[in-house]
Design a protein that fits this description.
It is built from four helices and two strands, in the order βαβααα. With about 120 residues, it is mostly helical. The protein has two domains: about 70 residues, no CATH class; about 40 residues. Strands 1-2 form a two-stranded parallel sheet.
């Protein structure tokens, strides 16, 4: 959590942490929940053996969809890069391409050619 930056706000406003942190059952540990609480966030983590994964479905779908888009780039899915800086560079490029393709598909970049 310490490596994450706070959410960016419009100019003149201070950065702040998100209100909730969603996680799957792999993060269901007291230390994880306490770390989230110390930062003033609400831990929305599925409990092992109690809560089904379908309860977090609508939140989890967004993350799973994004991971699927990124995994379509073979270089990222196979992790050929040895240096983390190279990997994060290719990850940033992949995210930029995903956003560009989505904008083209939604006709946000072609103002003169409405569909």
């Amino acid at each position: 959590l310490d490596s994450l930056r706070a959410v960016r706000q419009p100019l003149g406003r201070p950065r702040r942490w998100p209100g909730k942190l969603h996680g799957d059952k792999g993060y269901d540990y007291r230390s994880c929940r306490e770390a989230v609480r110390r930062r003033g966030m609400i831990a929305r983590i599925a409990r092992k053996g109690i809560e089904s994964a379908t309860h977090l479905g609508r939140h989890r779908y967004v993350i799973e969809r994004c991971l699927e888009w990124v995994s379509r780039f073979r270089r990222l899915a196979r992790r050929y890069e040895r240096k983390a800086s190279h990997y994060t560079g290719f990850l940033s490029l992949a995210c930029a391409l995903i956003c560009y393709r989505r904008a083209v598909r939604l006709n946000l970049l072609t103002r003169n050619n409405p569909k």
